[in-house]
Amino acid sequence: MEDSTGLQHALIDWFAANARELPWRGAPGEIDAWAVLVSEFMLQQTQVERVLPRFEEWIERWPRPSALAAEAPGEAVRAWGRLGYPRRALWLHRAAGQIARDHGDRVPRDIDALLALTGVGPYTARAVASFAYGERHPVVDTNTRRVIARLVHGRAAAGPPRAGDLDDMAALLPDRPGEAAAFNAAAMELGAVVCTARTPDCGGCAVAAWCEWRGAGYPDNAPARRPTQAAFNGSDRQVRGRIMALLRRADAPVPRSAALTAGTDGGVRDADQPLRALDSLLADGLVVEHDGRYRLP
């Protein structure tokens, strides 16, 4: 893209003046890498507004990885509350133990070391290295992909993830690592609050002058959408959530009958659904059984 320096400065300056104040944000080296890692686990497929109170409670209770690792895994699951996808809580607990044991209670900055942590994939590793340590790595989430699709490719939407997304972002990043980290965060923020999926505020966009989609007259050229996921209501996931809610509230292990009854509260799609949900929770390690009674791990 021509005049990428101008685009970079425009977006970074916009972010500096308009970014939402979030407790896991800060200049690289000033923000705690553990806070960044916790936020990245929590933000996966979860809205910022839902994450904020849970994140603040989590960091107050477990300000270091070793503090979390010292607790039973079930305490992490209990504290996760209703964020959804509670396996993330188990993975974060395991990662905390690895950090405390293998890295002196400090989240590593090296990509390979980050990838060796339980539950950390390529996106999370790059995000921690960039946002916590200021390393120059392309960080691409759903919001960033939409910005790139419109800004660079002139498409109304991004479509499915593709290998070239990282190359596109790498080509846009400033050369200086600190500025690259700011640009990563700024592109995400722009997609979250300005270049939104349904109602983009093109008039308020800091990089509208560089946008290929705008320049082409906002063509209706979005890629075909993938089939949406099945509705949550009545799903196995919802039944799992009912059982988990019971176990989070319980002060002692509950009998099998109580767990299955909790799964039916609100209705089920078929008679086997509560048992199927309970068995899947056991398989995932989110529930443990002893003498016919069930509890968090």
Report on this structure:
The model has no long low-confidence stretch (mean pLDDT 92). The protein is mainly alpha-helical. It contains 15 helices and 3 strands. The termini are far apart. A hairpin with a 2-residue loop joins strand 2 and strand 3. Among the domains are: 29-131, Hypothetical protein, domain 2 (Endonuclease III, domain 1), CATH 1.10.340.30; 236-295, Arc Repressor Mutant, subunit A, CATH 1.10.10. The protein is 54% helix and 3% strand. The chain is globular and about 70 Å long. A 3-stranded antiparallel beta sheet has the order 1-3-2.
**Order of the strands making up the biggest sheet:** 1-3-2
Give the number of helices.
15
Distance between the termini: 52 Å
What fold name goes in the CATH topology slot of the domain at 29-131? Endonuclease III, domain 1
User: Can you summarize the main beta sheet?
Assistant: 3 strands, antiparallel
CATH superfamily of the domain at 29-131: Hypothetical protein, domain 2
Weakly predicted, low-confidence segments? none
Task: Tell me the Rg in angstroms.
Answer: 22 Å
**Proportion of strand residues:** under 5%
Structural class of the secondary elements? mainly alpha
The helix content is 40-55%
Q: So what's the overall shape? A: globular
What is the element string, with H for helices and E for strands? HHHHHHHHHHHHHEHHEE
Using the coordinates above, name the CATH class of the domain at 29-131. Mainly Alpha
Q: Give the strand tally.
A: 3
Mean pLDDT: 92
Task: Label the CATH architecture of the domain at 29-131.
Answer: Orthogonal Bundle
